[in-house]
Design brief:
single chain; about 140 residues; alpha/beta; Rossmann fold; 5-stranded parallel beta sheet; DHquinase_II_CS; DHquinase_II_sf; 3-dehydroquinate dehydratase activity; amino-acid biosynthesis
Length: about 140
């Protein structure tokens, strides 16, 4: 059975490449997903990427794929600060979770400094742009 890594992208991440490129960079979400899928394929792991602007869709994805996933990479976007139903769904599964943020949230507005996901995540990668996703994937692959 092929191992899987679930990658969840929260609200507004579908606008990467166009959305405030001075903060989030010029790389699109499609390019990030392609890089993750190709790296996973090279390692013999299926990478499932899901983006939604709706918390319930991400909760459904965790409930569908989280039980069998070998790991979860999540950039919750704005849900980082208040997405309690998403946090609770993630807490139900045993897969290690890595939280990723493109920008360094701790150098930004104070409200961005609080994450409801961080206490249940194995680790957090912030401020390294799109490459933070690949670093999270490399850590998960090493843990397999």
């Amino acid at each position: 059975m092929t191992k899987t890594i679930l990658v969840l992208h929260g609200p507004n991440l579908n606008m990467l490449g166009r959305r405030e490129p001075h903060i989030y960079g010029a790389t699109t979400l499609a390019e990030i997903n392609e890089a993750l899928e190709q790296r996973g394929k090279a390692a013999g792991v299926e990478v499932i990427c899901i983006q939604s602007n709706h918390e319930g869709v991400l909760v459904d994805a965790v409930q569908t794929h989280g039980w069998t996933a070998s790991g979860i990479i999540i950039n919750p976007g704005a849900l980082t600060h208040y997405g309690l139903s998403l946090r609770d769904a993630l807490a139900m599964v045993s897969a290690p979770i890595i939280e990723v943020h493109l920008s360094n949230v701790y150098q930004r507005e104070a409200f961005r400094h609080t994450s409801v996901v961080a206490p249940i995540a194995r680790g957090q990668i912030t401020g390294l742009g799109w490459r933070g996703y690949l670093l999270a994937l490399e850590w998960l692959l090493a843990e397999l």
